Amino acid sequence: MTRVVFLLVPQLHLLDLAGPAQVFSTAADFGHGYEIHHVAEQEDVPAAQGVTLRAGTRWPRLAPDDLIVVPGWRTGTPRRNGALARETLDRLVAHHEAGGTVASVCAGADALGRAGLLDGRRCTTHHHVQDDLARRFPKAHVVRDVLFVTDGRIITSAGIASGIDLALHLIAVRDGASAAAKVAREMVVYARRNGDDRQQSAMLRHRAHLSDAVHHAQDLIDAGYTSALPLADLARAVGLSERTLTRHFTGATGLTPLRYQQELRLEHAEHLIARGSTVESAARAVGFQDARMLRRLRGRPQDGQGEG
User: Fold this and answer.
1) Cα–Cα distance between 204 and 131 in angstroms, integer?
2) How far apart are CA 112 and CA 90, in angstroms?
3) Which residues, at least 6 apart from 107, have a Cβ–Cβ distance to it below 8 Å?
4) Average pLDDT, stretch 119-147?
5) pLDDT value at position 75?
6) Which of 105, 109, 70, 106 is nearest to 88 (CA)?
7) pTM here?
8) Beta bridge partners of residue 148, listed in sequence order
9) Cα gap 122→119, rounded to integer Å
């Protein structure tokens, strides 16, 4: 069971919270192990949209697989609206140092910066407060005008609706692209948008098309990416010839089915390596016979343009 803890700050934006919370809640409804908690420094938390939320003040016990998310708040006076006690900021640091992941939505990146978690890291935030974030935390590298950025176990997003993209990315990395696609479809999320990170999910990069046959093929690859998937078997399963499937798949995604499978393997391997696995063990875990192919793929530019 993965605990997802939302840290609520006064004047938070409702969609910064509700978007990613809905993603993880829907994933839990589908049987994935997510348990959602809401904590704050006070029980009653006023939102920027005029309602007051009720949160707990006691933190659950967290493990390295758990996630803390800091939703953003109404900007203009970030020091006042985003005020958090040093003890709370230290909890973010302690969770990260213990191997956990810390994420922010919109101005929530300011809290991560005050905790010291952005020093030397790539990060992003809403375009209206990018300059302020860069000025307040000069040791951070602010990536402008992107949806989300992953740097190790620190993940920041642009805010508002992009918190949904961030959460879908995390679902794809932890539970597989097929699970994230299922959640997105349930939430009627039409545009599965890119972030700006090599580990962004292949589902987010290559699902924005309207070919049912290719979506079916992707679902099959997503579910069995660690195993050998002969093109003949894949084509038979979707009711197309090998040549027609390859043509449609490449036209819809920019990749051949094999290259798509390799991207899935690569992103899951990168996730394992980031959490301490060796290249060799990560390669075996995602289905490579040895680490040579994984090393080759890690050294190849990930431009999403398919095979040259």
Assistant:
1) 27
2) 10
3) 72, 73, 74, 75, 78, 81, 82, 125, 126, 129, 159
4) 92
5) 77
6) 70
7) 0.67
8) 157
9) 9
Specify the amino acid at residue 152. G
Quote the distance between the C-alpha of residue 306 and its chain's center.
22
State mean pLDDT over 5-32: 96
Task: Pull the structure tokens for residue 252.
Answer: 């819809």
The C-alpha angle with vertex 147 and arms to 56 and 206, in degrees rounded to 5, equals 115
Q: Which amino acid does the sequence have at 188?
A: V
What digits encode the pLDDT tens for the residues 35-61? 999 999 999 999 999 999 999 999 999
Listed residue (234, 229, 222) closest to 263, CA to CA: 222
Q: Is the pLDDT of residue 7 over 50?
A: yes
Give dist(CA 198, CA 38) in Å, integer: 30
Instruction: Write down the residue that tokens 């919270």 correspond to.
Output: 17
* DSSP secondary structure of the chain: -EEEEEEE-TTB-HHHHHHHHHHHHHHHHTT--EEEEEEESSSEEEBTTS-EEE-BSSPPP--TT-EEEE--B--SSHHHHT---HHHHHHHHHHHHTT-EEEEETTHHHHHHHHTTTTT-EE---GGGHHHHHHH-TTSEEPPS-SEEEETTEEEE-STTHHHHHHHHHHHHHH-HHHHHHHHHHTT-------SSTTS-HHHHH--S--HHHHHHHHHHHHTTTS---HHHHHHHHT--HHHHHHHHHHHHSS-HHHHHHHHHHHHHHHHHHTT--HHHHHHHTT-SSHHHHHHHHTS---S----
Crossing angle of helices 242-253/212-223, nearest 10°?
Answer: 90
Distance, in Å, from the CA atom of 10 to the CA atom of 73, rounded to the nearest integer, reads 7
Rounded to an integer, what distance in angstroms lies between the CA atom of residue 5 and that of residue 67?
A: 6
